[in-house]
Amino acid sequence: MERISVAHLARVEGHGGIEVTFSGNRVVDVNFEIFEGSRFFEPLLVGRSWDEVPGIVCRVCAICSSGHYVTALKAVEDALGLEVSAQTEALRELLFLGQMIESHALHLFCLAVPDFLGYSGAIPLAADHPHEVRLGLSLKKLGNDLQTAIGGRPIHPVNAIVGGFGRLPDREVLRGLSRRLREALGQAPAVVALFAGLKVPNHSESPAVYVALEPEGRDFSFFGRRISASTGEVFDVHDYRKVTNEAVVGHSHAKHSRLNGRPYMVGSLARLHHWGDRLTPQAQAVARQIGLTLPTENIMYNNHAQAVELIWSLERAADLIDGLLAAGLTEEPPVRVTWSSPRTGTAATEVPRGTLYHSYDFDAQGRVAAADVITPTAQNLANVEKDLRAAAERLAGKPEAELVSNFELIVRAYDPCISCSVHLIRLARRNLVK
Amino acid sequence: MKPRVGIYGLTSCAGDQLALLNCEEELLAIVAAVDLRSFVMAQSNPDETELDVAFVEGAVAQLRDLRLLQDIRQRTKLLVAIGTCATWGGIPALTGENEVAGAKRRVYGGEIKAKAGFFENLPPSPLSRHVKVDLAVPGCPIEAEQLLQGLASLLHGDLPRLPKFPVCAECKMKENTCLLVKDGAACLGPLTVAGCGARCPGLNRPCMGCRGPSDEANFAAEFRRLAELGHDEETIRRRLRTFAAPVAASEA
Q: Per-residue confidence at B251, pLDDT binned at 50, 70, 90?
């Protein structure tokens, strides 16, 4: 028996490794090992008041903190039956777009592109390709500045609350951001040139099931209330457990998901697989120019799908800001929240790495009785292992260095967020009687 | 010779390492000024040898964290804790000494057939409980300004001076309306160490205490005041514990 392992994956968020066991050229076992420490988020939320939940649960992950924060707000509002104003929804979407721009720019330019061009990271890449790295960093900063304008800071936002915002963003700041977003859109040809020039390895390993939220309106969106699977099935978000079916495995602190017994993929590629035809003309043109043709079963194209979403997010954010400024931002009175009976609230959003679910049971005083958070990376783990196994079978007998670099490439294409995936799953229940 | 630097994450959300990557305009200058030996979140091929400065994010929450921390301490001249998890235990430490086993059972079920090295959880705790920490920069996440000033000081062979006074002082300097006085809000500004520019009260949001307590934090007085304002004891205790449970549990 021979073991090929990557002890600690670099350029991913969190701590994980890969171990593949061969017997001759036969693949015996494939483990995507997750050894990030458990933080038990769900149990520690039990007993907390509804208004404390977003600020605690966003600490699951820094990169997706705005996503966790807003999804928790939406779950609380679902429990209360509260609909927010169009202005609040638009500002939240802006916060999301800032996160999408920041996260995709970080992954593409700093973590993934170095793989394609043969560098160990963005820092050595910058020595030979300073323009590309600076472009990536400037887009990343724009995403962060957008999150700061709406949420108060780029990591762990504070300004969004149930029903609205602590303080509306400054109009001048928004005007400046709109101008910078349009300028960044002017950089689209540079993004196209970079991605169109990348040599994409073929890791079309096995038929894929893609899962993504259905946008609420006619346009592409990261918000939705129905879950669509490429098997043709459609679920209401309240029935998310029929999709995620989580189970504990012995080599991972994160649980694994299967839909009807099959692994599935969430993320940019899954979103574009379902709703790519709803993108703007400019984003669709970028997809064509960088050689992204859908459908595809080659996971390596997830990077390209992220690049398309990055361009779309810049355009959408600029349009949203211009719309908000034209309508005039109006102060809205804070929503008064009262709890009288136990309630359950569930919400889902599309965060950079895929569909994120939050679900909470509250007692009659609005305190958490049970919490469930299911992250995109946790859903993708079983699919990552499926792809790794197929690659190991195809590449068996190749030199170890080639195996390792191919395995790393596959895992990194998913843009895994390991901190997110490790928290906990089963419903935690505690009697809340004082 | 450029200082040899390593950047590490224990159990955490990676927000403090991300805060460094979020210094987009300074990042390339920073990496040019140091000899960056290890930063696994951002770069492959780490070189785990002797270091001048190690920056460590996260709480010690499993055996793996403890072994890595002890290894780093042996190899580095200075060890800097970055973020509230590393400084105070942070959110992970909300799962206390007696609760880890129960939380594990609730999350993962009873019997786990695990590989060696997996599911070896420890009660989450700050770095200083296990090794000598030369400097602790709190914040959830750390503030970019403090990080950059700290780096500049270290490059000049000095440790940075961090504020010891509470967020309340920064809030007064900004002439914000006091949310505790005006609304009777459970604002933790009087206890929490400054450095954030009183961001949350400036947005009409009460301080959650994400930076951990200041040196002179008077827990008893805050507790009394919030109780007078009508907040129930359980709520006050819970809010005080959020980011610095190991210290707040004994104080409040």
A: low
Task: Compute the distance between CA of residue A293 and CA of residue B128 in angstroms, rounded to an integer.
Answer: 53
Q: Which of B21, B94, B106 sits opposite A428 (nearest CB)?
A: B106
Asked if the Cβ–Cβ distance from B43 to A123 is below 8 Å, we say yes
Better-predicted residue by pLDDT, A50 or A115: A50
Which among A19, A30, A40 is the top mutation candidate for probing chain B, defined by the most B β-carbons within 10 Å of its own β-carbon? Answer: A40
3-state secondary structure of A77: helix
- Convert A133-148 into a string of H (helix), E (strand) and C (coil): HHHHHHHHHHHHHHHH
Q: What is the pLDDT of residue A426?
A: 25
pLDDT tens by residue, B217-230: 898 999 999 999 99
Contact at CB, A110 and B124, closer than 8 angstroms? no
The 10s digit of each residue's pLDDT in B7-47 is 999 998 899 999 999 999 999 899 899 999 999 888 878 89
User: For a pLDDT cut of 70, what percent of chain A falls above it?
Assistant: 89
CB-closest option in B10, B24, B124 to A140: B24
Measured CA to CA, the distance from residue B107 to residue B62 in angstroms comes to 16
Confirm if A302 and A273 have CB atoms less than 8 A apart: no
Number of H helices, E strands in chain A: 16, 13
Higher pLDDT, B235 or B249: B235
- Tell the burial category of A69 from Cβ atoms under 10 Å away from its Cβ (0-12, 13-18, 19+): buried
CB of A8 less than 8 A from some CB of B:
yes
Query: Which helix or strand (DSSP H or E) is residue A33 part of?
Result: strand A26-34
Indicate whether A434 pLDDT > 50. Answer: no
Complex prediction ipTM: 0.92
Q: What's the rounded Cα separation, in Å, for the pair B211 and B85?
A: 10
Q: Is A144 on the interface with B (CB under 8 A)?
A: yes
| Amino acid (one-letter) located at A428 | A
- In the structure encoding, which two tokens stand for residue A46, read together? 């039990």
